[in-house]
Amino acid sequence: MVHTHSIDANLSNQSGYTAAFKEAQTGRSVSSQAAQKIQAMSKHILSNTIRLRSLCRLQILQGQMMSSQAGTEVLLEKVGNAGVITLNRPKALNALNVNMIRLMYPQLKKWETDKETDIVIIKGAGGKAFCAGGDIRAVTEAGMVGDPLAKDFFREEYILNNTIGTYQKPYVALIDGITMGGGVGLSVHGRFRVATEKTLFAMPETAIGLFPDVGGGYFLPRLQGQLGLFLALTGFRLKGRDVQKAGVASHFVESQKIAALEKELVDLKAPSIEDIARVLDSYQKKSSLDAEKPFVLEKHIDVIDKLFQSSSVEGIVCNLKADGSPFAQKQAETLAKMSPMSLKITFKQIQAGRTMTLQEVLVMEYRLSQACMVKGSDFYEGVRAVLVDKDQSPKWNPSTLEEVSDKSVEDCFLSLEEHDLKL
């Protein structure tokens, strides 16, 4: 908006020029003093007019830039009978913002009913990331000033996650690079998720005072044993083929083969799920990189199942400390750095999600997201410490697990009544 109030204030101070104008209007010779005043007045008006026009022009340009930028942050293309989505913010590691969501959602709905579209492929530009997460810095900035983005972002993101999870056509996510948080939500609920040696997966939300959202409460408890709870609480990172071995990705294909794989998928004519699976399987068989390498957590999986089998986060911490092994000690140290409130919310979320549908989980997670947006919550402090000031020293409140009451956790799960997520 152009700020006209300062211009109005300047014009209101011009009563000293009135007499000079009247003198000129009478037809009498204008005194040199009056002439100077008229000249000064003219310059003043001209200056303000130019300034006002410049402000308007700047505003138009900014609007055009925002519109243009939003249009290029996601590329939506029809290639043959395939709808191809390219997340196109490589400098930001393709971090997901609300403009991108608003471009993808209607296009996905359109392709879902389009008889000329047989398959949807989603990928990231730049070679480093599929999508490194949601643009949570913008979300917390909005939350601090009461901007509706704090509600809109989570609501629209979860609706998009549900659309992917219930998509009626084959959906293939090429997660070639960093895939965290919001990027997981764009991929994990789809039928096919193709990891490469460049894939780096994590749900690191407990480190910033949040929780593993975007349907984390649905897919994490469905991983083997207590692996999902372990990943949710610790934010442990999985790389390359391990992303598939954990069950997050459906296939593993070497990064250099991804372009050829995409072309073959695009060229398929009216493919069935089985047709696509055969193509993916064939590329996986041709990808021998790290094939003999054991799962990074293979020797710890029994320990994880044993130590993370508890009725509380405090119980897990006790188990880890009592075990005393280097692995257990490292996980105890990791948990000690996380937001105590986030750990307890996440524990309850994962336990509840085991028996919920994806839709029920997303409704639950929207409630949790809004609890985290309350001013003074750990989410703001976590984003400050990790993303803004980058001092990596968040001051959590409460600062210990023991100080987090059961009621404060349960309150986060309460219905928002008419403000609940509608799917």
From TrEMBL:
It comes from the Eukaryota. It catalyses: 3-hydroxy-2-methylpropanoyl-CoA + H2O = 3-hydroxy-2-methylpropanoate + CoA + H(+). One of its GO terms (cellular component) is mitochondrion. CDD domains: crotonase-like. Pathway: Amino-acid degradation; L-valine degradation. It holds the Pfam family ECH_2. GO terms for molecular function: 3-hydroxyisobutyryl-CoA hydrolase activity. Its EC number is 3.1.2.4. It is found in: Mitochondrion. Its main location: mitochondrion. GO terms for biological process: L-valine catabolic process. Transmembrane segments: none annotated. Residues 83-413 form the Enoyl-CoA hydratase/isomerase domain. InterPro entries: ClpP/crotonase-like_dom_sf, ECH_dom, HIBYL-CoA-H. Keywords: Branched-chain amino acid catabolism, Hydrolase, Mitochondrion. Belongs to the enoyl-CoA hydratase/isomerase family. Hydrolyzes 3-hydroxyisobutyryl-CoA (HIBYL-CoA), a saline catabolite. Has high activity toward isobutyryl-CoA. Could be an isobutyryl-CoA dehydrogenase that functions in valine catabolism. Also hydrolyzes 3-hydroxypropanoyl-CoA. This is 3-hydroxyisobutyryl-CoA hydrolase. It comes from Esox lucius (Northern pike). The gene is HIBCH.
